[in-house]
Amino acid sequence: MDLISNIALGLDTALTPVNLMYCFFGVFVGTLIGVLPGLGALAAISMLFPMTFHLEPTTALIMLAGIYYGTAYGGSTASILLNIPGTTSSAVTCLDGYPMAQQGRAGVALAMTAVASFYGGIYGIIVLSVFTPVVASWALSFGSAEYFALMLLGLVAASSVSDASVVKGLAMVALGILLATVGMDPQSGTARFTFGSLSVLDGLSISALAMGLFGVAEIVSSIGRTAARQLDPKAITLRKLMPTRDDFRRSWGPMFRSSTLGSLFGALPGTGPTVAAFVSYGVEKRISKEPERFGKGAIEGVVAPESANNAADQTAFIPTLSLGIPGSATMALMIGALMVHGIHPGPKLVTDQPELFWGLIMSFWIGNLLLVVLNLPLIGLWVRLLSVPYHLLYPAILMFICIGAYSVHYSAFDVMAVMGFGALGYAMRIFGMPAAPLLLGFVLGPLVEQHFRRAMVLARGDFSAVIERPITGVVLGITALVLIWSIWAGMRQKARMRDRKLTAGQED
Amino acid sequence: MSGIDYREMAGGAFVTLLGVGFASYAAIHYTVGTVTRMGPGMVPVALGVLLAVFGLVIIFGSFSSLPQRGEIRIFVPLVILGSVLAFALTIRPLGLLPAVLACTLVSTLAERKLSVVGRFVLAAVLGASAWLVFIVALQLPIALVNWPF
């Protein structure tokens, strides 16, 4: 009966007019950003991040989360209609969604996407509300050594799963932690790397970092490359949205299997909606009786990745809320938003802040419902938005970034910091270095340092005593395995690319 | 077939220099301490060294990799970063409206698709929407126009 009272509490919180309004605002902005190619959830969340400082923590999280899963809905629209993924997690949807659009079945694809996303989202929410309290109660006995090991696993997994090389990912994690040491050291009171400036005594601002790395750097790389295309909004009307009975019959199986896979990948560190979407597409193609239909407009190829990435979006909150360890850069921003309000997510969050946890979960239900309502009848609006040219869009985005950064502390220094991180972000793009591990390192940095120092003091400086703790040892072992596997996979891929280049050279 | 990838090498050098910079600055200015009683310098020094090692590995890898393609832009990043700088420099002394105008007028230089009139129209529209969103609706305490004289 505990669950029912918790759900009631959550509904109470989520249905207050303020929270309802921000939930709607979040999913609306999320869909908008998701539809616009070249702007992802990270850029959107970092732009609106400063706004959350003026809100209650629960409301802030409800809004940010709404943007997050809203982009997954919106991203598929651009994939299906233009063959341009609005977000990376909807890239797979292009494979069968765009052929469907070419066959005049764009409306059906969009409608089934909404259904599959809703199904995946709901599935993920149920997994989330069942498992988070379980993981949290299990994690109550964790000490500093366990936390240090888990954070290390999260950081290593996140940097090795990205498409760049492992060493680049790890280097960016290290750089992120180093940037996080700027400011006052909480244990000794020493001001580190401040160069006598008072502006950075509290540390570098996470919103400036995120807006520079993901917003400004993104704009610099997108200018002149993102062409808006003309589409006829009348081509998609509500009547053409209706899927046939055959479409539904083919979709139930893939939706169920993909939601299960998506829930699993969402909760694991390092993997996330994008991996979930790719894997579920591969699985459906492999077990299908007619694999040749895939890539030519198979409905299964649309619903599988869409239900998987939406389920993964929800279950990504499991480690974030139960352990306080984000599995992705977006989740790191969520934790950052909570920390600004003085809330440190961890196993006690579910019991200490039940209205935050259950309110958030209930807002997911409401948000997913709102998304179906927003996406189906308003599809014409989103299609029109796709044709806004980028040269009108990017000055507006820059303006929001600048004002957003300024409004945190009303300091021009923060705007300068955005510029600095923008320059760093563009340099990193030139060198092919991933930005997500840096942000993850930046958010987890202070915690990693604190737990590491504490664990070493408790173990009297003896590292083997840390490893001998059972959970710590197992987690560190898994970390080592992930590291070895990804180095090996990276070397194999490099060798294969070289072989291909060699044979291509001989054919010339 | 594989040659030296100079861009990759430059990236490795960049990372190495950052690592050496962080580590040496921390080693000189902050107490490192011992493993049981770590000082504020311990973690920065250790991570700086680690970062430098990663940088060296990247440099080492650049000797046997395939050169990447993809242009390096100079003009566009400078204009965009310049527009952020323009905002930072004008927001305090002049206020929100001049800052938005400056930011937009500079940033629209990056993609020459708008006429001069078009750029001013866009700047005016953005300035008006900034006023509506941030001062009227959100009521942030930012002056719309400051007169420093």
Give your account of this protein's structure:
The complex is a heterodimer of chains A (508) and B (149). With 508 residues, chain A is mainly alpha-helical. Chain A contains 22 helices and 2 strands. Chain A has one domain (2-226, 239-507). The radius of gyration of chain A is 23 Å and the shape is globular. Chain A has a two-stranded antiparallel ribbon with strand order 1-2. By secondary structure, chain B is an all-alpha fold. Chain B folds into 2 domains: 6-64; 75-137, no CATH class. Chain B has helices spanning 6-29, 42-61, 75-94, 96-107, 116-137. The longest helix of chain B is centred in the N-terminal third of the chain and has 24 residues, at 6-29. At the A-B interface, helix 8, helix 9, helix 18, helix 19 and helix 20 of A face helix 1, helix 2, helix 3, helix 4 and helix 5 of B. Chain B: Residues 11-141 form the DUF1468 domain.
Indicate the structural class of chain A.
Answer: mainly alpha
Calculate the mean pLDDT score of chain A and round it: 82
Shape of chain A: globular
Q: How large is the radius of gyration of chain A?
A: 23 Å
What overall form of chain B do the CA principal axes indicate?
flat
Order of helices and strands of chain A: HHHHHHHHEEHHHHHHHHHHHHHH
Number of strands of chain A: 2
Largest sheet of chain B: none
Round the mean pLDDT of chain B to the nearest integer and report it.
86
The whole-angstrom Rg of chain B is 24 Å
Number of helices of chain B: 5
Largest protein-protein interface: A-B, 65 and 72 residues
How much of the sequence lies in strands of chain A comes to: under 5%
